[in-house]
Hints:
Layout lengths: L4 H10 L7 E2 L6 E3 L4 E11 L11 H18 L3 E11 L6 H16 L4 E8 L5 E11 L14 E4 L5 H10 L7 H11 L5 H10 L4 E4 L4 H12 L2 E5 L7 H10 L3 H8 L5 E5 L12 E7 L5 E5 L2 E2 L11
Parallel strand pairs: 4-5, 9-12
Antiparallel strand pairs: 1-2, 2-3, 3-6, 4-6, 7-10, 7-11, 8-10, 9-11, 12-13
Amino acid sequence: MKKGEFxxxxxxxxxxxVPEGMMGIGDDCAIIKGDVNDTIFSTDMLxxxxxxxxTKASPEDVGxxxxxxxxxxIAAMGGEPTATFLSIALPSDAQGEWAERFVEGYAxxxxxxxxxxLGGDTTSSLRDIAINVGVMGSCERGKALxxxxxxxxxxxxxxGTLGDSGAGLKALLADLDNSRxxxxxxxxxxxxxxxxxxEGLALSRTGxxxxxxxxxxxxxxxxxxxxxxxxxxxxxxxxxxxxxxxLEHICQCEGWDKYTLATAAGEDxxxxxxxxxxxxxxxxxxxxxxxxxxxGKAEIRWLKEGKEIEFNTKGFTxx
Length: 319
């Protein structure tokens, strides 16, 4: 077996048989085909010390984020979320007030998007908190947006600014003053991401999107998933990456590299998609073009002012 996260995923896939009418490992959600609508399902795990720190995030924030990152998977397929399932393992010091506040945060975002919690499991943990959320959604039959549809000539778009969440994490770990407006903004983007559900539905309705996924590990990693699934290459112009004023300011003050954060920090949960350039005129929210799909190896060529540069960055990996 190849080492690392994706080696394990490939090994699991090689030992899995997917029945007819279903699509399994390889996209943001599994698909179970129906007569009118398809059911889409995904699951994500968050571990204390890996995905969150109790000393840096409130229980409400952890509850919000646990649901948000799963709802984002449904958005990535152009679907509408219908239900979630929550399983949580709690050490003894988190089984009272912490757990209740966590549920309040989880319920807050669930109400916001009208998605009921239908079940799950609870158990004890010897030390750290472990959270697993499953999410169900629905989309028109055969219309789920996959990673494998990118075409040569497509424009690469993102739905919002990149790097804010990664800067928020750095700010938390560095104990930067949260009363600073730019610090407060990036920290909020890290602790309470926004799943782009309405944007995903609108993009699906255009009928023009070739490939789409959400940005959980940074475009340096996530765009690579699209390229490998589609058998194409990409050119990305660094100066076209949408950078928030807050990120610009905090990077200038702290000496951080905005391009590394924008491409590799991850957890922005914006949508990353490929489509003809006219798709931007068909939706009522901004789409930011950052590059083009090209022929060649499934790899990213990084450009600055139109010239190829050496930019050795990798997105987040879980192993």
